[in-house]
């Protein structure tokens, strides 16, 4: 019998045939993350007159399995900004730890010169770009919501490629297709967003979360929503979609058991 | 000038040869130091002392007084900042630093060495977090920093720290969530949770240049440490009855009392505190709010004025008693 | 003959707990020509006297711009100041790159303080032989910091370091209350008057030997800044003329008298 360490815990060759140890070879290129594993779906956000609303559901999927149903994908930073995470959940946890240590560093001085949302977004996009340039990307798409240096509403996205983007409304993942058009109708440009009331903005975002739950199979009706203003962050992590109407579902044909 | 000698005999010879120097040393009452064993860190003298560490302690003894009080629901840190120049910006130049969210440190002695201490302590706290995914306890931080300071007594290529540092903090009494946790573990039983078990609490440690450290109910270092210690002892802190808010007032009073021996110099009082999670600072290390600080200073001054009269009365009698005994 | 044995390196404490090498390094600061810094609610200014090695040589630079929002002036070993200022330039640039933010002045000053401290605790290194005054603005307004070879850094309302700087400090202490509400011009004028106090009998401030650096905030909010500007040569004339004999009398505050007494 083979007692070499590489044979430990393996089926015996004489019983099961030669073991395929090709995966043990380490010649060939190094491989880092090739795909996300446990994932969060859309994050959506909308600027309004004196702040930003941001929302994401509480689901972490493992492929098509709804694996974890109470995952907080909106993370506070320094009581002034919120980061919404789409994509790989373990990479989100890594970034969360990174932000946590940054937050501690920033709080050393009591002078009140903490990083604002704009600074935070710049930092995160550099982290993401560095990782993609190392061919070891953090598989996320982020929305950073908060206030900038002039205390004006700030909203921007950064993704696994280090790409950055900014707009009065933003959505990641499925939301980019399903929610973004609705949000653009509410706030087509900065001027309109600057007139939008908080109530209208929150209402629109909640409506979008509902649409996403209707049409995105990797979504959940439990979600988190945060409103960031000069007064601080109002983060609710245990919201439930209200007034759902599935009447339209009847008419959907062409997949599953109802083939026609 | 011969510096390197071997054995006590050589030391005696050297002592004889460098007569002028010896007499200078005697003047300073440091005859022992004059054997050359005090010129290098990490070197023992024949009677087993490390003089460089002792000299580092001298640097501490000249620094402004720092104290820490461990109260039942939190910890207070306070420091007497002697104002060396009128041109200094009032209220700036903080001397008590945040190590981690729940922990602060203050030191007496060489101020830049204090900053070095803080910077290392922050690194230790951050590295603890990245390894164990939980905040470092005050005890563990004191242990790490004790080790760090001790290492600076081991080599001739470095000098010991010229500070004594007081570290205070509040270890969370709640069971902390697992870092980045997704979902929750079992509420009791196999998850390792024990019903009724309590965690955390206040922590206060003082670390000396030698690397020695102890836990304290009330700690004091710097110029006014003797007076401050005497005052701290009166508080019966071991009983664990002092509330945090009273602790703040006591700390202010003690700094004022300790400063009374050094009256000719003006000073600024700086205080920070850490309360329990349901207290005023929510387990975080923060500056004592302005209103409370001013109130504490007002009481301290009032006490000092009243004390002057009392002390003259009190002092008279026991002083006589002391003399009788001798 | 007695010799102090405790002053050969920066890793030896004297029996009194002093580190002589560090104290000697502070003496190097006093060899440098004098520099003055003052801060008000809106501005921070640096003024300095430059020295030339000989008649035909150029003057040693005394004020260095670090970033849009801050600069420093030095007294002591200029080459040590260059090492520190290069480091500061790197730090502030790195802050702008990674966070898109101007580095807070206190943080930058602390970072050079920490660097300097290392040089006082390890054998084979020597303390920096330079003192700095760092003036800058950040989110919390204008600031002035003093840096010493020991690694000590302190935030000041006003400060003077270098040769004969005690005279300048006396002037600053006497006028301390006035600084907070000064505008740019008045602040520079105070700086130059303090500088004059420290000048040797036969010396005078001229466009050749005087440098001025200014940085400030514009308007009410601290958001718009008036970037660090360095004045040298003929550009200094506008400031020097603020404190020429005639102008001072014109101010009518009798400050000239006060200074003379």
Structural class of chain A: alpha+beta
**Unreliable stretches of chain A, pLDDT < 50, 5 or more residues?**
none
CATH fold title of chain A: Glutamine Phosphoribosylpyrophosphate, subunit 1, domain 1
CATH homologous group name of chain B: Aminohydrolase, N-terminal nucleophile (Ntn) domain
By CATH, the architecture of chain A is named 4-Layer Sandwich
Q: Mean pLDDT of chain B, rounded to whole units?
A: 85
Helix content range of chain B: 25-40%
Q: Biggest interface between protein chains, with counts per chain?
A: B-C, 44 and 41 residues
Structural domain tally of chain B: 1
Q: Approximately what portion of the residues of chain B adopt beta-strand conformation?
A: 15-25%
Bin the helical content of chain A: 25-40%
Can you tell me the CATH topology of chain B?
Glutamine Phosphoribosylpyrophosphate, subunit 1, domain 1
SSE string of chain B, helices as H and strands as E: HHHEEEEHHEEEEHHEEH
User: Overall mean pLDDT score of chain A?
Assistant: 92
Total domain units of chain A: 1
Query: How far apart lie the N and C ends of chain B?
Result: 47 Å
Keywords (chain C): Cytoplasm, Nucleus, Proteasome
InterPro entries (chain C): Ntn_hydrolases_N, Proteasome_alpha, Proteasome_alpha-type, Proteasome_alpha1, Proteasome_asu_N, Proteasome_sua/b
Pfam families (chain C): Proteasome, Proteasome_A_N
GO cellular component, one term (chain C): nucleus
What features would you describe in this structure?
The complex is a heterotrimer of chains A (260), B (326) and C (261). With 260 residues, chain A is of the alpha+beta class. Chain A has seven helices and 13 strands. Chain A has a single domain (38-241), classed as Aminohydrolase, N-terminal nucleophile (Ntn) domain (Glutamine Phosphoribosylpyrophosphate, subunit 1, domain 1, 4-Layer Sandwich), CATH 3.60.20. In chain A, strand 2 (43-48) and strand 3 (51-57) form a beta hairpin. Helices cover 40% and strands 19% of the residues of chain B. In chain B, strands 8-1-2-9-10 form a five-stranded antiparallel sheet. By secondary structure, chain B is an alpha+beta fold. In chain B, strand 3 (97-100) and strand 4 (103-109) form a beta hairpin. The longest helix of chain B has 36 residues, at 290-325. Helices cover 36% and strands 24% of the residues of chain C. In chain C, the strands form two sheets. In chain C, strands 8-1-2-9-10 form a five-stranded antiparallel sheet. In chain C, strands 3-4-5-6-7 form a five-stranded antiparallel sheet. Residues 249-261 of chain C have low confidence and may be disordered. At the B-C interface, helix 2, helix 3 and helix 4 of B face helix 3 and helix 4 of C.
């Amino acid at each position: 019998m083979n007692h070499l360490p590489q044979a430990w815990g393996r089926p015996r060759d004489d019983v099961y045939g030669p073991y395929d140890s090709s995966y043990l070879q380490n010649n060939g290129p190094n491989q880092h993350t090739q795909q996300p594993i446990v994932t969060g779906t859309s994050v959506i956000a909308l600027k309004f007159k004196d702040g930003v609303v941001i929302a994401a559901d509480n689901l972490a999927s493992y492929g098509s399995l709804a694996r974890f149903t109470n995952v907080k994908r909106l993370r506070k930073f320094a009581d002034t900004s919120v980061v919404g995470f789409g994509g790989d959940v373990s990479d989100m946890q890594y970034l969360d730890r990174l932000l946590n240590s940054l937050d501690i560093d920033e709080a050393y001085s009591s002078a009140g010169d903490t990083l604002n949302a704009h600074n935070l977004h710049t930092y995160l996009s550099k982290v993401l770009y560095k990782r993609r340039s190392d061919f070891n990307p953090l598989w996320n798409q982020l929305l950073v919501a908060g206030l900038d240096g002039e205390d004006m509403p700030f909203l921007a996205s950064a993704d696994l490629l280090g790409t950055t983007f900014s707009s009065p409304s933003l959505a990641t993942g499925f939301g980019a297709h399903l929610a973004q058009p609705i949000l653009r109708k509410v706030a087509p440009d900065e001027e309109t967003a600057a007139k939008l009331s908080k109530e209208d903005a929150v209402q629109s975002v909640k409506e979008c979360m509902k649409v996403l739950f209707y049409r995105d199979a990797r979504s959940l009706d439990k979600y988190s929503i945060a409103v960031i203003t000069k007064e601080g962050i109002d983060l609710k992590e245990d919201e439930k979609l209200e007034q759902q109407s599935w009447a339209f579902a009847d008419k959907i044909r062409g997949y599953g058991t109802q083939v026609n | 000038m011969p510096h390197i000698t071997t054995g006590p005999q050589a030391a005696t010879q050297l002592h004889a040869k460098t007569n002028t120097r010896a007499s200078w040393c005697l003047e300073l009452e440091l005859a022992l130091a004059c054997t050359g064993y005090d010129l290098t860190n990490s070197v023992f003298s024949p009677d087993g002392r490390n003089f460089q560490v002792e000299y580092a302690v001298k640097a501490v003894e000249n620094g402004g007084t720092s104290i820490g009080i461990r109260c039942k629901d939190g910890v207070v840190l306070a420091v007497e900042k002697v104002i060396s120049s009128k041109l200094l910006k009032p209220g700036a130049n903080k001397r008590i630093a945040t190590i981690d969210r729940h922990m602060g440190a203050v030191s007496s002695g060489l101020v830049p060495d204090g900053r070095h201490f803080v910077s290392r302590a922050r690194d230790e706290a951050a590295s603890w977090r990245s390894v164990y995914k939980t905040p470092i306890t005050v005890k563990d931080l004191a242990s790490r920093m004790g080790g760090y300071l001790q290492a600076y007594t081991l080599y001739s290529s470095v000098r010991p720290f010229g500070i004594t540092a007081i570290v205070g903090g509040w270890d969370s009494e709640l069971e902390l969530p697992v870092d980045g946790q997704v979902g929750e573990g079992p509420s009791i039983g196999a998850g390792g949770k024990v019903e009724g078990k309590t965690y955390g609490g206040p922590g206060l440690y003082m670390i000396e240049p030698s690397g020695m450290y102890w836990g304290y109910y009330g700690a004091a270092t710097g110029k006014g440490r003797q007076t401050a210690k005497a005052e701290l002892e009166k508080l019966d802190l071991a009983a664990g009855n002092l509330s945090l808010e009273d602790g703040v007032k006591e700390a202010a009073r003690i700094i004022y009392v300790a400063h009374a021996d050094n009256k000719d110099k003006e000073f600024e009082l700086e205080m920070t505190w850490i309360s329990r999670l349901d207290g005023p600072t929510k387990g975080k290390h923060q500056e004592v709010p302005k209103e409370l600080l001013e109130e504490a200073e007002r009481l301290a001054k009032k006490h000092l004025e009243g004390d002057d009269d009392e002390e003259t009365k009190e002092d008279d009698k026991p002083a006589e008693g002391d003399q009788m005994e001798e | 003959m007695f010799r102090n044995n405790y002053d050969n390196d920066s890793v030896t404490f004297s029996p009194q707990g002093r580190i002589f090498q560090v104290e000697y390094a502070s003496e190097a600061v006093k060899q440098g020509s004098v520099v003055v810094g003052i801060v008000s609610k809106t501005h921070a200014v640096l003024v300095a006297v430059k020295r030339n090695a000989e008649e035909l040589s150029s003057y040693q630079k005394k004020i260095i711009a670090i970033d849009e929002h801050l600069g420093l002036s030095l007294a002591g070993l200029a080459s040590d100041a260059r090492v520190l200022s290069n480091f500061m330039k790197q730090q502030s640039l790195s802050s702008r790159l990674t966070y898109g933010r101007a580095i807070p002045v206190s943080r930058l000053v602390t970072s050079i303080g920490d660097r300097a401290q290392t040089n006082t605790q390890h054998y084979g290194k020597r303390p920096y032989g330079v003192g700095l005054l760092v003036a800058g603005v950040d989110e919390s307004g204008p600031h002035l910091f003093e840096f010493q070879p020991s690694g000590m850094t302190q935030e000041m309302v006003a400060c003077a370091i270098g040769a004969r700087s005690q005279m300048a400090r006396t002037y600053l202490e006497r006028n301390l209350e006035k600084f907070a509400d000064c505008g740019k011009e008045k602040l520079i004028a105070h700086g130059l008057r303090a500088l004059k106090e420290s000048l040797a009998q036969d010396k005078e401030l001229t466009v050749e030997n005087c440098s001025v650096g200014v940085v400030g905030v514009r308007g009410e909010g601290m958001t718009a800044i008036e970037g660090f500007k360095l004045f040298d040569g003929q550009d200094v004339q506008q400031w020097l003329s603020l404190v020429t004999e005639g102008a001072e009398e014109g101010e009518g505050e009798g400050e000239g008298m006060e200074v003379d007494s």
